[in-house]
Structures are given as C-alpha cells and as structure tokens.
Amino acid sequence: MFKKAVKDHPGGTSKPLQSNFLRANTVIPSKPAQPQSVGVKRKIDLTNGGESTLGSLHSSVYFDENDFDDDLDLDIDEPIALNIPSATSTTYAQKPDPVTYPTIDLTSPDSPEPLSAPANKPQSDIAYPDLPPASQEQAAPPSSMQYPWSSSPPSHFQPPPKPRTLPWLKEAKEEPLQEKKSNLVTPKRSKPAEPWNKSASAIKEEQKELRREYKKSQKADGAPKQRDNGKVAKVFLSDEQLHVVEAVVDHGKSIFFTGSAGTGKSVLMREIIKKLREKFKREPDRVAVTASTGLAACNIEGVTLHSFAGIGLGKEAVPELVKKIKKNQKARNRWLRTKVLIIDEVSMVDGDLFDKLEEIARRIRNNGRAFGGIQLVVTGDFFQLPPVPEGHGREARFSFAAATWNTTIQHTILLTHVFRQKDPEFASMLNEMRLGKISPKTIDAFRKLSRPLDFHDALEATELFPTRAEVENANSQRMSRLSGEVMTFHAVDSGTIQDPQHREKLLSNCMAPMAIHLKKGAQVMLIKNMEDTLVNGSIGRVVAFMDESTFDCYKDNEGVFVAGGNDNEEDAALRARKKLKPLAHKEGGVTVTRKWPLVSFVQPDGTERHLLCQPEAWKIELPNGEVQAQRQQVPLILAWALSIHKAQGQTLHRVKVDLGRVFEKGQAYVALSRATSQAGLQVMRFEPRKVMVHPKVTEFYSNLVSITQVIQSKKKKTGGADDFEDEL
Ligand SMILES: Nc1ncnc2c1ncn2[C@@H]1O[C@H](COP(=O)(O)OP(=O)(O)OP(=O)(O)O)[C@@H](O)[C@H]1O
Ligand SMILES: [Mg+2]
Predict the structure, then answer these.
(1) pTM above 0.80, yes or no
(2) What is the dihedral of CA 274, 277, 281, 283, to 10 degrees?
(3) Which residue, 409, 356, 422, 423, is CA-closest to 380?
(4) What is the distance between the alpha carbons of residues 63 and 78, in angstroms, rounded to a whole number?
(5) Which residues does a 6 A CB cutoff place in the pocket of ligand 1?
C-alpha cells in the first residue's frame, strides 16, 4: 500500500483558505512580503548524513526565441552578475531566514508525538495566511500577479467543505473537490464557434489515425532503440522509489518528488515513464514527457515544456497564449489529449510560467480542475538550478511559489537515500554543502581534497568548468598533444521538422554533437546507457578505430591478440584485418565498411571493457510519437573537460573542480555532487563562501519530511503497524 511522504494537513474551517490549501500537500507556502509565520514546521532529517543531502544553487537558463529548446547558453560564456538581491541570498556563514523548527525533532527517537502540532496550536500546523475570503464576483487576477498570486478563478479559493485528507483508498468515498467547483470555473462551451471542441467520435477517429502513424513511425524507424533494448540491467527500485511509482501509476496522483543529488530521481523518472507508457500503450499521446531545458528534455526523449505547450516564449498574457494555441491544431490536440504531464528538472521552470500553463490547461480543456484535470508528475531539486530571471530587474520565481503549485501538486515526496555516494561521510559533507551550513571539519575535509588523484591508469579526472569556452579550450589542448590521425564523425539528422536550421537548433541541445573529432588516445565519455556497467557517464579512452567485422574478429580472438605480443590495440586490429581479408574473399569479396571508435572503458571495479562505439539515436519526440528531430551519432563526447551544465545529472568516478572559477549559485554543489567518492574527487580553492543557498529554497525544504520519517513516526503511533492510512 502506498504511504504518503508527508502528513496531509487538515484544512482549517474557520479561516478562509487560499488556493494553495485546497489540496493536501506537504509544503507550507510562504507569504511573500511578510515574515515567515508558520507556526510549526516539520523538519527534514538534516542530521542524517548521507540520507538527505541539500545543496546550493545555479546558473542561468533561458529559452530560445524560435524553438524554445535551445539551452546552449547554459554553458555560460561570461560570468553573469547575479540578479538576486543580496537580501534574498545567503552565504554559508549566514543563517537562513529565521526558521522556527518544530518543537519536536522528528529525527529524535525520543520524540513523543513526531508529527503532531504543539499544544497551543489548533489541529492544523499550517499558519493560514490572512487573505480576504474569495467571492464569486471577484475577477481572477492575471496570472503574472505576484500575490495573492492565483490565476485561478475565485472558486479555487473556496475552502473545502471539511478537513481534507485525501488518503488514496479513502478517496473514493470523498467527493472530488475540484469536480464540484468545475461548473463555476469552466467557461461555457460554444460548440459551433469552437472547432477544437470536437465530438468524441471525431477525436476517436483522430486517435486511430495517430496510433496508425505512431506504429508506422516505430516500424519505419530503423534507428537503434534505446528503450527496452534489454541491454541495460533492470533497475531494482528502493521502497521509497516504489512508493512514488505506485502513487503515480496506480493511484494517478499528481506528485512532485524531490531529493538531493544522487537520490535516483532520474532513474525513478525513467521507470515511471516506462510504466506510464505501458499503462497507456494503446494511446501513447496520453503521456507527455517534458523538461525545463533542451538538454534535460533530450535526456528523457521528450520535448521542452514550452515546445509541448505551443506557447513560443510564453511572455504574453494567458488569453493571447490560449488564442495562439487554438490556432495551432497540433498544440491544441496535445493539450486536449494529455492525461499525464511529466516535467523533469522543474527547478528551472519559472513560477509565472507554471501558473500560466495551469490556466491554459483549464481554458483549453474546458475543465475547471487543477491543470484542467491533467495529472502532473514533476521532479527536480530546487537546490540545484533555479529559473532564469526574465530581466527588468525581476527575480525569477521558483515554481513551488507559483499560486497554483499547491492546488496542482497533491503530494510532495522527498527521496532521502543517496545512491551516488556510498561513503556516508562524503554524503554528509555534500549534505552540509547543500544546506549551506558547512562545519569547520567539513571545510577541512574538502580542503584536503586539493591533492592530485592517485590512479594508475591512462584515465584522467574529468575537469568541470562553468563556461563552454574553458571546456573547449581544455579539450582541444589535450587533443593537440596527441599524435595520430584525426577521425571525424558527422551526425546524421532527420525528423519531421523539415527546416534544417530549426531542426539543428533543436538538436543542438543534445549531448551528441553534430561532429566529433577523435584521435587514438582521446579521453571520452559515453553518453548513452549501453550495458549494465557501460552507462551514460562512463569514461574511457579511444584505443583504435575499426569496422564491425574487424571488431567481431578482435573480440572473438582477444586472447590470441593479447598473447601475440605487447603491441597495442591498433596493431591487433591490423592483424585482425589481415586475418579477415582471406576470409572475406572466400565469401565473395571484401565489403568496405566504416570504422568506429573502439573505446576502452574502466569499470567501477577497475576492470577494463572494450566497446565499439557505433551510432546511437537521440530523439525529440512529441507525445503522439512524432519524432520532430533525430540525431544519429557515435555516443561519445570528449571528456578531459566538461561544462557543469552538461555534467548536471551525471555520475562521475573521477572529477576535478576548481572552485575559484565557480561564480554562480548552485555550480559548486552540482559540480562536487557528481563525484561518487572522495578518492575520486579533487577540489581546488575550496571556499565556503562559494556555497550559497537561496533562503526560499531552504524554507521550502524545511517544511518537507521524508517518507521514511513519516512511516517511522506512524509506526510509533500505531504500535508497529506501518499502515497510517487511517490517520490521514
Ligand atoms: N534503485 C537504485 N538502485 C541502484 N542504484 C540506483 C538506484 N537509483 C539510482 N541509482 C544510481 O544512483 C546514481 C544517481 O542516480 P540519479 O542520476 O537518478 O540521481 P538524481 O537524483 O537524478 O541525481 P541528480 O540530482 O544529480 O540528477 C546513478 O548511478 C544511478 O544508477
Ligand atoms: Mg538527475
């Protein structure tokens, strides 16, 4: 049975509610321009080293004007002055905003009532903001308004009829709140004038056609399949992760799951997407896979949120955006057909954009429920990359501060088990860094990591840089030191977008470059999951270039080649070719084939694996299966150096970071948290002041508790039974 990450908050009955409280959620919203007045906060287990790491902040993101998928500029060229007023940012040394932690420490085994409110408080531990009661006559404020924020119609501000708890299995008994309101907020249908209001049979017919097209495209697509290719070992999800899958797939909940770097958010999201695709296998366009940036979208074979929405840059007011979408049949259909909307790397989604999309969804779908009834599955870590400010001196709003965040997201789940760093001491150091509260002991420990790494093989640590220019410079310097022929591999691009420039722009966000120049000896990173131990992020060295049949022969006779002398792989390949020639003649002639890089990867256990890196495919795919753009390229990039933007999401065994170069919030934490161990991390110029945390993010996370804590506290209350559903 699914257990919620946090206790639901019963709604107050005497005070008016604002939209944020209409749904059970874990986050106690703050009230801008007012001091924090939350009565009781639940505390994350910050003391639990390695179990819950928090982080710091970030670099800028923006969406390109034409395709909204271009995030090349995230590999920053120039240090950018922070647009965040100093009052809102804090360094490691400063305490974040005064935060009143609960009188009961959830992490303490002695806490008598871990999740209950203090005696002098009413049942609810939420301090409800003093907003005036919403009235029917009130016009809905524009979505761009900061506060009282909501672009929702006034009905969204109505309090629930009774304290809402929404446990999964009780839900059937409860009246769906949003349903009741829908007649208040759903715009009147005017069928004849609105061709997008198609009849059910017309939509069915359209979907049949879509399915046919999708099947056709699947068959016609000869590109190597990444999904379900059986090459990569099955992931065994942890209990925490399984709870999320259950809530999303079985219970259809709108969920935000979060956690520090390395808690398996991406692994979990891939699993959820797989499961949802199985659930909707007859209607693939029901699941929309999106992410905030082009790179993140490309990593999960989706599109950017802007692209999905069909809103261009999305700067206009909602009515104009709705008009724009209605004129674009494909975009309109996407909105109408989507049942589940996935948003990855949500920390970079602007709060205003979130509100606009929520309103657009309700309007286009003629459905007054939150997000027009679309289930949202959202993930990200707000301690990593923030949304980019739009200019005009306006600070970007985090999406958790969006007016409609809490009416949309039913449950927030905090993942606490860190998979990436197995050493609890290291995980705890990163945890402190994430929180922006670094102890002298941890500062010392990080400073000790300035020594060179001690590995005795040909692989060097990958150096992470904040700017693209530094990366290109470092990689090309290393390349020029190698002798030997340069082999260039050009990508083959295709897709439904015919305009080559537009397509190229979309594909420029892929990890795979349009052309890659390699030499024997080049250090490279694998950018696709190939096998259990050969995964996205594996680092290796090019040892030869050979064609497939030579490689087969090389593979089959590796022992003979190795026994044949001390020569290198190139010579071995030569011998293999010689061996192959007569064989080929026997079969009726030699076929001239292309040579691909043969790469020797060092696996986590120190052993070597050779892989002939033949082209793989990257797709930008719409929910209906239409592949807008596809790139086929060898799955490698140069890896002596990598930008922090491109390293985001990666797991690296050998990393070198010079914090003196880091200038943006989040860069330090993102960079250091790529490493799997202290032995594999070199940190130069460690300065605690480089580690900055946004107080709003600290506040947001301080109101979350981990699912494990909730289960434990409930167990205590129920004398061991881990079922706390009846208490919710
Ligand atoms: N259930 C699991 N079992 C074993 N390993 C796991 C599991 N979940 C994740 N991992 C491993 O942990 C590492 C980090 O996972 P992942 O990249 O999904 O974390 P993340 O939360 O997305 O981190 P980031 O915030 O840095 O992107 C990866 O090497 C991944 O293979
Ligand atoms: Mg990730």
Answers:
(1) no
(2) -170
(3) 409
(4) 18
(5) 235-238, 241, 259, 261-267, 381, 419-420, 649, 651
